[in-house]
Structures are given as structure tokens and as C-alpha cells.
Design brief:
This protein has four helices and 18 strands. It is mainly beta. Strand 8 and strand 9 (about 170-175) form a beta hairpin.
Length: about 325
């Protein structure tokens, strides 16, 4: 079962941000671009003054030549606005690097990895996109927003590319937030198809998430099995690869990692005692760091904040004449 929703917020023309710098870590999808069709010179796939890739450009330089925000005024930047990601849903913690392209900030948020466009001058949400993946999301191994998304354009067309926690690849119109009608079904391709395994109805025997690495998984639904809305168990119509085709973590190579200088096996089914040790360690961590476990419920702790230089004699923020530094606003620990 995959339900789609698209919400288009109040539209405002985003200003061309004069200064933009940001750093983050870990996810990049290469999107080929044609400088001839775009009508403006691209430098390593990035338009000067923008941030179209997770690490700035196709070479991952993590650098912008803009210098209105510099060493002389960095310590006096003031918050112009804050975009609160938690208003759209819970997340583990916010660690996403937004992109900036053609007057829009583009980002993901919530543990369902919804996509958003934001007006960089005001912090207003222009549109949001997401899908309900049912059991595939419930038992997804990585229920969080992730590091970001990808941007593609050939000039007149602009797309946002994102992979959801339940393994759907989405191509979204960056201008409207609607799925690309020429890509998959309403802009979505199911990444579980075409792998040589038939898709079967999925079911669950509990209402919780997958416990890494091998506890409480989904299963193939029984003939005629229905969804119990009270216990939140059974089959909800979600289709996916039958988990019985292989045990969770068996695809991970046997390798050792160093944790507190002690070698352990990464697959708990190869080292049965490690699963219990991991659970005990995590329970102890939750006791020692209760703020971390509850931070996502506080809408003031995560999202995006925009910092701008302070102009003497002027209390206005969000001005088109100011450079803006967009940073993830992390939960306070």
C-alpha cells in the first residue's frame, strides 16, 4: 500500500541569495546537467552562487567563492529565521544538508524522509512531498531523514531526487512538489521490483520497528489476512520482497570493527552474544542521555536556521541585500 500526498504552501518568489556556505556529510547522487541548455556557465555542475550538490558541486569541493559572510563578521551573525522540521513529523535527529538552486532551498525531513522546498528569504515552506509506505516503512532499517537529496535540471525542467526509507525512488518537480508523470508511477519507482524476487503481501505481528539486526521483522501475509487497526498488526496491503528469502544481516560481509578497542562481528547472527550486548548498551545509553531520546518531540530543537550579518542601525532580517548562511539546527544534547 503506497499512498501519496502533496501539499503546496504559500508561494513566494525566493530571492537570489548573495552568499551561501554549508557543510555536511555523506550522501551524493550524481545528476548530469547541460550548461548549454541552462543558458548559464556551470562550474563543476554548479551555478555560481548556488549549492546544487550535497558537497557544493559535482567534484565535492564543499566550497563557495562568495565572501560576504567572512571571518570578520562570522561571530556576529544573527538568526533571520528558523524552519522547524519537527512540525512535519518525528525524526531521529536532524543532520540534513539543504541544497540551494534557482531561488529555492531543497531538503528532506522527518523519519519518513519527506521532501521540501523552502523560501530562502523567509523560511516559508513552498511545498512538501511524501508517501505512506505502510509496513515497508515500519520495518525499514533506516527510519530517518538522511543526509539530503539530489537536484537535477536540463534548464526548463527541474527535479528533486530522493530515495525513501522503504526503498522507493522518487522524481519530484522542484517547482511544484508534484511527482514527475514521466518517471515511474506518478514520479515513483519501486526499487524492490526487477530484482528477481516476486513481491508478496507483507504482514507484521507487532506495532514496532525492526530491531537491528534480526528481531521483529515483517513476514509474508497469510491468505486472506487483514489489518487490525486496534493492535496495528496483520496485513495492510503493502507489497514487498518476502523476508523469508534471507535472514536479515546475512548479506553483510564477515568483518571486524573496533569498538572500545574490542573486535566484534558486524552480523549478530554470526556472533549471537553481540545482539544482546548491543541491546544492553543501547538501553544504558538511553538512560544516560534522556534528552537525546526526547529531543525530536521538541519543535524548537531541529530544522534549518538562517544566519545573516547584522546591519548597524537596522533591525530588519530576511532582506534581499543580505547574505545568508543556512545551517542544520541540531537537537541540543
Amino acid at each position: 500500500m503506497t499512498r501519496r500526498w502533496t501539499t503546496i504552501g504559500m508561494r513566494r518568489l525566493g530571492m537570489a541569495v548573495a552568499g551561501f556556505a554549508i557543510a555536511g556529510a555523506a550522501f551524493l547522487v550524481y545528476a548530469s546537467q547541460s550548461s548549454a541548455r541552462q543558458g548559464a556557465a556551470l562550474v563543476r555542475g554548479n551555478k555560481p552562487g548556488e549549492w546544487r550538490y550535497w558537497a557544493a558541486d559535482a567534484w565535492s569541493t564543499r566550497y563557495s567563492a562568495l565572501d560576504q559572510i567572512n571571518a570578520n563578521n562570522f561571530d556576529s551573525l544573527q538568526v533571520a529565521w528558523q524552519w522547524k522540521a519537527d512540525q512535519y513529523g518525528e525524526d531521529e535527529y536532524y543532520r540534513t544538508t539543504p541544497l540551494y538552486a534557482n531561488g529555492r532551498l531543497l531538503t528532506v525531513a522527518t523519519n519518513r524522509r519527506k521532501a521540501f522546498a523552502i523560501d530562502p528569504s523567509t523560511g516559508a515552506t513552498l511545498w512538501q512531498w511524501g508517501i505512506d509506505e505502510g509496513i515497508r516503512w515500519q520495518k525499514a532499517p533506516r527510519q530517518f531523514a538522511g543526509r539530503g537529496l539530489a537536484y537535477w535540471t536540463d534548464g526548463p525542467n527541474e527535479r528533486v531526487i530522493v530515495v525513501t526509507p522503504g526503498y522507493h525512488l522518487a522524481s519530484i518537480d522542484a517547482k511544484t512538489g508534484k511527482g514527475d508523470p514521466k518517471f515511474g508511477t506518478d514520479g515513483v519507482v519501486d526499487l524492490m521490483t526487477g530484482l528477481g524476487y516476486p513481491l508478496v503481501p507483507l504482514a507484521v505481528d507487532d506495532s514496532g520497528p525492526l530491531i537491528i539486526s534480526e528481531a521483529a521483522p515483517a513476514r509474508k501475509a497469510k491468505p486472506g489476512e487483514k489489518w487490525n487497526a486496534t493492535t496495528k498488526t496483520g496485513a495492510d496491503g503493502t507489497m514487498g520482497i518476502d523476508p523469508a528469502n534471507g535472514q536479515i544481516a546475512n548479506s553483510s560481509p564477515l568483518q571486524e570493527v573496533v569498538m572500545n578497542l574490542t573486535p566484534i562481528l558486524t552480523s549478530s547472527n554470526l556472533c549471537p552474544t553481540q545482539a544482546a550486548a548491543d541491546k544492553a548498551a543501547y538501553a544504558k545509553y538511553q538512560q544516560q542521555h534522556p534528552a537525546t531520546a526526547t529531543a525530536s518531540s521538541n519543535p524548537t530543537l531541529s530544522g534549518i536556521q538562517a544566519l545573516q550579518p547584522h546591519s548597524a542601525g537596522s533591525g530588519a532580517t530576511g532582506s534581499a541585500s543580505k547574505s545568508t548562511l543556512f545551517l542544520p539546527k541540531l537537537p541540543i544534547k
